[in-house]
Sequence to fold (289 residues):
Amino acid sequence: MTSFFDRLADGHVLLTDGATGTNFQDMGLPPGVGPEEWVFDAPDRVRELHHRFAEAGSELFLTCSFGASSVRLADGPLAGRAKELNVRAAELAREVVGADGIVGGTMGPTGQLVEPYGPLTRELCQATYAEQAQALGEGGVDVLVLETFFALEEALWAVEGIGTMTDLPLIISFSFDQGTRTMMGISPADVVAAFEPLGVAAIGANCGRSLEDSDIVVGEFLQATSLPVWVKPNAGVPQVVGDTVLYPADPATLAGHIADYARQGARIVGGCCGTTPEHIAAIARRLSR
Ligand SMILES: [Zn+2]
Fold:
């Protein structure tokens, strides 16, 4: 098995995958149903999307576990099943991509505000991410990914908890959904200052707002850090048309921005919401695969 770090050697730009949620919605996931429910209820469709990204040229595949922390699951139909869900999500990805694909165990925010603004204490946060990371590791992931974070405390506590449980490489990715700052006012340089000293394997941004904002965010990361920069933007700003949400950036447009990021020095690239296998195939072509 080739390790995550081996694959980053020699300046290789690692191509990740695209969206889970928006592609599942195109595949029939009803509005309001969490993608994680398909890990148990429709595993063939979870495998199918991993397979489509593999055919498009993805090398790193995120598990269907973004919302699978015990805290986030607590009020829904998967309450109490975080451990088995994360193990299974990792296994499903591995079943498709084999030993040569890199499986990234993804973990999103809990959906709770940190104390004193909300109920999320440091101890609870550490424990929920320790549990999720341990289960993803048990399922066989190669690397862990904290993505779409916006609050420094929650992400720092998550890193602390994960560090008690596993030595797997850890990627940290924030969502700058106010443009070039998170909803808490955090900048790329703030993220680098907080997480580079903690020994993370890569750092960067996903989701966010427009591709033009992403251009600025990527530049700020490349300026601020010598770590590998990770970037997985949305396929443009979503537009609601009738009862559907459209992402306006077509494959060529997204691939043009991503190719620029790779030229500037970004090392791990892909797409977030609205990014289809066709977008990933276009990026793969631009990266001359
Ligand atoms: Zn997104």
About this structure: The pocket of zinc ion is lined by residues 207, 234, 272-273 (CB under 6 Å). Residues 122-138 form the longest helix (17 residues). DSSP finds twelve helices and ten strands in the chain. The first strand starts at residue 14 and ends at 15.
